[in-house]
Structure formats: structure tokens, C-alpha cells
């Protein structure tokens, strides 16, 4: 009498199964490679005691898979074939951008026969989970993949649980498309953002042992200040200098550490300051200049210097202002038309030959002229 293998598989599933996520819920399943030989497409067989469906998302070993086959059901378990998502695709609906985990391929493979159907040059096939969002994808809708533009030319909705798209290369529109981040028509509905972050306390400061220093940070978007920006702080050595989520620094023990501030949702935008824990404070002045990074030719802009002593702003010091061309040529393409203590007004020259060139505004500490900060200003067209 032949003994069924299914109860044994059920035993192995319970005893040897791995934890993974099925549509966001933790479950246990048996996973093995679908083929013996290594292939470009990562396909695996999954067996679980909970129901499986075509199109289910499986998060397994830090990778996302989609069940692409029909489901084999028996008395003890459910079995199917899953394939790893190799790209994320962004579709844009009038400024509402949604990202989808997808299987992108340049050739179509038949699971039943193993045959390969060649696609025309510049064409790709995409498989997505069938859900309320992907059902909104329409013919001729544009998207980017690997920094190349594509257009949806065919939609197959006959396979329950999965939507298949056939797509061809499209023309690039650099005025609207965010090519670098693979988002079609992004700038048609959004303003391009240029973020900047500055720790206003300078590049280095001292803090007394067991005392605190408040870091002040300015974040800008296209030159305008961001109100209440989300900022993350961390220390290179929390045992020497600690920092909390509000930028309060404490000297824990004598030594140095680098404090980094970054925009929480734009982690590449950072600034740093070196903090030294000391037993006795001595003066350690630093200067920053606030004001526009551009001036239109013939027009003026105001600038303010802020002076810090060991990271704390002080008001008993002053600066001397000066202006030069970035390339040190003459005549200077602007002038300081007013100067009162720590404030100055700079007027750009009116010649059209100055457009897109740079001048440099300097502020030198009056009590120590070797302590100087510079701000580069670009001269722009009136139009």
C-alpha cells in the first residue's frame, strides 16, 4: 500500500517551514527553487497551510515576490509558483504618483511549455498585482523604467489576480519627466525641489562636561525656509556627545564627536558640526550669513551675519563686510550699498554680461579678521 506524501509535507511545513509575509501577514511556508539551474528570473515554489491566490504578495528574505501561477489545493496545504519582483514602477495620475512592485521582462516565457516568445526591440512586458490601483492604469499611459520612458500599448486582465501590460519605448520629455527618479510627468504637476540644510551654530563648538547646547538648524526649499522641518540628529560617538531628537547636545565625557543633522524624508540633505566636550569654555567664534543665493542684475538683496560662541549666538561681536568676484577679476560686478553692524545690502551690477556669473560676499569678525565666512551669490537675469 502506497503511503501518501501529503501528510509528510504537512509535517515538514509545520516543523521546517520558514516565517514570511503573505499579503502583509506573518505565516509559515515551505520554499524551494522552481528549477535546478540558476536563471535570470528568480522563481520559487511555495507551500502553505493558509489559502494562497494568484497575485498574492510574498515577502521572503527581504525580497518581494508575486504568486504568478494557479494554486494547487489539497487536503493539507496550498501550493503555487512565485516570482521575484525585479523593479518598482511609478504611474502618475495628474500628480498622484503611486509605486508598484512589478515583474519586468523583455521576453515572455510560457510556464507550460518552457517556450520563449521574442518581443520587438524596445518592448517590455510587466506583471502587476490586480488591485484597485492597478486597475486604473490606462492605454497610452507613460512611465519610466531604468531611466527610459515607456507607454502602455496593451492590457491583459484575463488572468485572475494579475494584470499584464505590454509596453513600448516612448519619447523622453525632460521638461516634465523626473528621469533620475523614474517618474513620468512629475514636474508637470509638481515644483522641482532643491533642499538645503544648515546647522546655524557653525562647523564646530565646545560644550561643557555634563552641560547642554542647543543646535539651531535652518532648512530651505528652493531658497525659502521650511516651517517646522522634520530633522533627524545622530552622534558619531554618543558616549562622548549625545544628541536628542530636538537637537539638544550634551557633553557626556571629554572628547570629540560629529553631530549630523539630516532632513528626515530627504536623507541625502545633511549638515554636520564637530562638538568637543571640555571642562572649561574658551571663546570659539563662528559666523554664518543668511540671505538669498541669487540677485537679479541691477537689483539689491539684504544679508545678515550671525555670530556664535561655542554654538550659542552672541550679540556683542560685529563683522566687516567685503565683496569680490568669484574669479577675483575686476571690476567687481556689484557693490555693498549699506552696512550697519551685522547687516549689509548688496546691489548687483546692471550689465547683461554679468548674468549667471558669481560674486562672493565676505564677513570677517571685527575682533579677529582671520575668522571669516563667505557666501557665493549668483547674478541672474531680470526675466
Description:
Strand 13 (142-145) and strand 14 (148-156) form a beta hairpin. Strands 1-2-3-7-5-4 form a 6-stranded antiparallel barrel. Mean pLDDT is 90; it is low at 108-118. With 383 residues, the chain is mainly beta. It has 4 domains: 6-84, Thrombin, subunit H; 87-189, Thrombin, subunit H, CATH 2.40.10; 195-278, Immunoglobulin-like; 285-380, Immunoglobulin-like, CATH 2.60.40. It starts with 5 loop residues before the first helix and ends with a strand. The protein has helices at 6-16, 186-189, and strands at residues 18-22, 25-33, 43-48, 57-60, 63-67, 72-73, 78-84, 87-93, 96-105, 107-109, 116-118, 123-129, 142-145, 148-156, 162-169, 195-199, 204-208, 212-214, 217-221, 224-225, 231-235, 241-243, 248-251, 255-263, 266-278, 285-290, 294-296, 300-309, 312-314, 319-325, 334-340, 343-348, 358-365, 368-380.
Amino acid at each position: 500500500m502506497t503511503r501518501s506524501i501529503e501528510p509528510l509535507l504537512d509535517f515538514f511545513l509545520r516543523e521546517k517551514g520558514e516565517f514570511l509575509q503573505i499579503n502583509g501577514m506573518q505565516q509559515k511556508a515551505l520554499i524551494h527553487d522552481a528549477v535546478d539551474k540558476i536563471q535570470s528570473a528568480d522563481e520559487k515554489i511555495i507551500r502553505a497551510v493558509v489559502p494562497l491566490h494568484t497575485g498574492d504578495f510574498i515577502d521572503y528574505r527581504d525580497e518581494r515576490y508575486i504568486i504568478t501561477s494557479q494554486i494547487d489545493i489539497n487536503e493539507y496545504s496550498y501550493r503555487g509558483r512565485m516570482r521575484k519582483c525585479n523593479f518598482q514602477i511609478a504611474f502618475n495620475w495628474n500628480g498622484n504618483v503611486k509605486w508598484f512592485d512589478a515583474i519586468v521582462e523583455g521576453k515572455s516565457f510560457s510556464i507550460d511549455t518552457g517556450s520563449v516568445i521574442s518581443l520587438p526591440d524596445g518592448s517590455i512586458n510587466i506583471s502587476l498585482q490586480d488591485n484597485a490601483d492597478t486597475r486604473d492604469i490606462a492605454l497610452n499611459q507613460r512611465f519610466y523604467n531604468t531611466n527610459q520612458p515607456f507607454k502602455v500599448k496593451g492590457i491583459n486582465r484575463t488572468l485572475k489576480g494579475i494584470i499584464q501590460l505590454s509596453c513600448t519605448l516612448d519619447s523622453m520629455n525632460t521638461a516634465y519627466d523626473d528621469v533620475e527618479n523614474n517618474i513620468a510627468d512629475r514636474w508637470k504637476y509638481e515644483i522641482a525641489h532643491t533642499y538645503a540644510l544648515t546647522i546655524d551654530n557653525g562647523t564646530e563648538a565646545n560644550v561643557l562636561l555634563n552641560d547642554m547646547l542647543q543646535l539651531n538648524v535652518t532648512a530651505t526649499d528652493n531658497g525659502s525656509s521650511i516651517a517646522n522641518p522634520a530633522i533627524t540628529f545622530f552622534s558619531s560617538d554618543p558616549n562622548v556627545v549625545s544628541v536628542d531628537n530636538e537637537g539638544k547636545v550634551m557633553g557626556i565625557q571629554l572628547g570629540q564627536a560629529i553631530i549630523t543633522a539630516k532632513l528626515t524624508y530627504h536623507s541625502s540633505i545633511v549638515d554636520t558640526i564637530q562638538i568637543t566636550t571640555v571642562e572649561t569654555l574658551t571663546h570659539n567664534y563662528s559666523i554664518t550669513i543668511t540671505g538669498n543665493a541669487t540677485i537679479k542684475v541691477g537689483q539689491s538683496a539684504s544679508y545678515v551675519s550671525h555670530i556664535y560662541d561655542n554654538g550659542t549666538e552672541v550679540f556683542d561681536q560685529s563683522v566687516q563686510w567685503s565683496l569680490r568676484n568669484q574669479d577675483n577679476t575686476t571690476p567687481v560686478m556689484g557693490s555693498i550699498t549699506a552696512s550697519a553692524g551685522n547687516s549689509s545690502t548688496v546691489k548687483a551690477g546692471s550689465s547683461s554680461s554679468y548674468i549667471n556669473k558669481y560674486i562672493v560676499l565676505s564677513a570677517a569678525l571685527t575682533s579677529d579678521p582671520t575668522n571669516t565666512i563667505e557666501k557665493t551669490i549668483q547674478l541672474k537675469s531680470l526675466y
